[in-house]
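User: We ran a pulldown and think these components assemble together. Before we commit to crystallization trials, I'd like a predicted model of the whole complex to look at. Sequences follow.
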Amino acid sequence: MRLRRFRLIAAHSLAVLSVIVSVAAPIATEVASAARAGSPACPVGPVYFGRAECIGYFSGKDVYSNGIEVDSVIDNGGTSLMGVTNVDNFVSTLRRLLYGSNYNDAFGAAFIIDTMLNRQGSSFGGSRNNGISYAKSNFGTWETRVRDYNAAGRVNWNQLIAFNAPFQNSGRSLQVWNDDIFYRKTTDETQRTIVFTNPNGTKFEIKKNCGNLVGTPNPLVASPAYNLDPDIGVSINNGDTEGDVAQVGDTIRFTYQVENSASTNSDGTTTCTIYGGTYTGYHAIPDPEDTTSNGGYVPPPTGCPRVFTRNTTTTLATETITATTANRTICRTLVINPYAAGKGPKTIEVCVMIAAQPYVKVFGGDVSAGSGMESNGCVPNNTAALNSWNRGASRAFAGAGTQFATMALDTIKDFASAQGNIIGNIGGRADNLAFANTLGDTYGGALGSLPCIPDYFAQANNPEVVPGNVNLSSYTDRTRSIKVNGNATISGNVNPGNRFILYVDGDAYINGNITYPGNWLYTKTPMFQLVVKGSIYIDNNVARVDGAYIAQPTATNTKGNIYTCAPGFSTYANNQLFTNCATQLRINGLFSASQVYLGRTFGSISEAPAGETAANSRAGEVFNYNPTMWIAQPLPGTTTSNAKVGNYDAITSLPPVL
Amino acid sequence: MNKDKIYRIALVAVALIALVAGVWWFQGRQERSSQAERDQQRYNSLVRTNDTLASNRKYDQAAKGLQDYLATKPPKKFERGAMVLLATTYVNAQKYDEALTWYQKVEKQDGKDKADVAVGMAYAYDAKGDKENAIKYFQKAIALAEKSDDPMANADKKSYEYEIKRLRGEQ
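Assistant: Here's a predicted model for the assembly, 829 residues in total across the polymer chains.
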């Protein structure tokens, strides 16, 4: 009985013992866990990438044993990441360590890369090698992400940070198991740190002296695939004025826009900067574009940085200004940065010239372009055009034009017909007397053919040869033509009773007004024609020329032009016209030439009133084709068979009367 | 009046006094506790704000916030933290003389060398180009690491040794 009882007791004791033995391991673990939980370095609660404090990131092993013992995540020969100052050496350093022979540094680099990519520690099956493999396989993704952050200005490579204890730290465990862990550091520390800042403000921080992740590590996010394009729209006078040339008094509206052509919203980091510059004269848009402002320019607010919705064009701001000074170029630049994730800035610049838009007016006559010249075999110029500036239909076609007909073998642009005529702009048209008006263009053009222009120079009938300096005022009751062999400089009055033609076998430079002064009997009606086998240059100070001015090409088919503003026997450069050619030129007569260069910059079409008359015209050149051109009997031409002119007995006007 | 009655009255009086004192003490403790919580929250908010501004490299704004905070005479333990933050902010803002001024204030207040200040001063001198003082403070940091029971002390020591070698042109 006693024995049995002993056995029973023994059996019971054995059972108890076996129970004790069977639970010993879990109890020991619990005791260790409890100790770990109570330690300042390994508090319970925080979990990073699936691992609690003091639990190996790759292995999942608890490394606590009467505390922890740790070293740097990255040793790198004692230099860790101290030498990292930019994205290139950060990427290259981690690549070298990941693929290098130092195993601790290899999985240390993998620890950084994998956590930056938000890889959970539990995904490695307890193996550091798996962590290294994952980092190698995803190195490209990681590098792209790091470079995107860097390009977006989201990385500070050398920030000094004071860490107030206790704070989250990490390290490589030196006891229990060789693995990287997260733990709580209990002493204050100041360290150089690499800081990645996420779009939501969270961070991923790496201490440079050890490669340890510090603070709450928030993984880097993939960059959204947005694609932005900046644009600046220009509208002058609410769109009434086409192009990029405005005049004083015009309103100019700049509309700043950004188009996101991708199917992903932008990440809200793109900044938008507007620069404004005003330059004297013409300012070409440089390459790269202007990115400074002048004149105290204050840009409109843009609301950037902001999110740009996918497949949408966003208007950032509009800015309306009034042009106050001519001969200026007003430019605006819009810079967005980045235009895409990981990319840099994209810039656009537009400029509006504040210019005078001088124009030409013709009263009492027609204008045609494209006729062949008899001296050149009457070959028409099918590309001949009339080209000036006109304010268009909304402003009753004020500006350039003629009172009667326009004819051109090619285009007529911004040059109206029938201005001030009884026909006027009936039906809101500018081509009522345009030949032809079949194109549907606003101003007409493309007339099939035009009469040939006579070879006036060949009509010279025994002219008197005179020296090259011609003062017209010196002639009295002259009816015999004169001729200059070579270049001629011409000025002076054509007094009543004078009727003659000046032939110049060279270039002519008109350096003073040529006028028909005073009044006269019809029998004394003055008549002056200048016929030049070369070009005619009219000095910039000349304000009036009366008579007919004809320039024919030379025998080699060069020249034959008329320049209405010239410094001598030469021409001004385009950028000199505004300053030098501001005097209005009135032509009481006609021009005939291969090409007429209308250089006067006296007025601007913004000053041109509808119903403009010759008296109040603001045109740079004002043509008055008047009766003196036909009341005075022309001089008889040569008696050769190609004579085109001679005395007439009567003049009448026949239909069509334009 | 018999003795029992006197004792009872005395007992009640003592009890009342104890009760009033207890209530007074409890209320004071509550207030002190609430104040401590508020101080802690205010400091945490300061650190967060400073962190955000530093991330955006708005160091001047961060420094102003810290100085405004210090002007309110916060509790000592928060004051030190704010002073160290201010000094590091000045280092990041490349205002090294201001940084050193604040580090020296903390150093004086601490009355002994501490690693966070020593390292901060070393980097401030380093950035300023004063190698001699930078080395001196890294050496202080090494000495502190050698005496530290921090698990990372050895690794920290190695990094400071590296910095000294760099400053001496040995790297």
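Chain B touches chain A through 36 residues (CB under 8 Å). That may be worth checking against your pulldown data before setting up trials.

User: Thanks, that helps.
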